[in-house]
Amino acid sequence: MDTTTSTIPARKQAFIAAQTTLLSKPIAPSRAWRATNDASNIPIRQRLVDDAVFEFNRIIEEHCQRSYAPQASRNLSERINNIYVGQIDNQGGGANDVEGGIGKEVDLTNDSTIESLPFSWPSELEAAARPEDAQAFSRSVSGLVELSKERQQVQLRMDKLRRLQSAIEPLRTSDSGRGVQENLVTRNGAVERELEKMRNLLDRVAGRVDSFRDASANARSRDLVNMDELRTSRKRAVDEFLADSKVFSG
């Protein structure tokens, strides 16, 4: 029987499968029978013996396949498990409700049940008579409690990750989950190529703007007037006007 399984249906199904394997194994006449048959005055011919054994093994194999099918074994295991569960419901207690020990029907995979387990052997008399078993029991309970705490922490982490998954679900753009990565700047990615195009466009625009600025500056420089020359010419015109004899005669 597989002792690594933890649930009652799995244990019972493994036990039934092991017993079915034993029942379905082919049989053969023993050496003692063969020796007795050979020493008999009227021995049975070997061919008849082989044919009879072959037919018997065939009938046994067919019977096991029909009567102990995997589905039937699973149903039987589930019925046994339901009986255990019914006993637990009828008791309605914890792991320490069984006098002198822990009931076989107690579910040791339940966190609340694990927390209610005693850390020492329930019976002091048996603990004194079997100290090694009592110590092994204490170590097993301590290990079970630690594993239960680790499982609770893992469950909390799983719940947190599920909440994070639900939070980022709207960011998905396809059923495969793609969409977020495409929006990140990665080497040789789509965003990097678009940024390179934008930089080239900005360089071209900046070059055109600089050319317009230079042309405007040149035009303004041509339109500038020398103020000193303007003042000198105006002063000369005023002096000539005042010195004109026709304007200021006698």
From TrEMBL:
Under the cellular component aspect of Gene Ontology, which terms does the record hold?
Mis6-Sim4 complex
- The protein's superkingdom reads Eukaryota
InterPro entries listed in its UniProt record: Sim4_Fta4
Cross-referenced Pfam families: FTA4
Q: Which PANTHER family does the annotation name? A: INNER KINETOCHORE SUBUNIT FTA4
Q: Tell me what this protein is called.
A: Kinetochore protein fta4
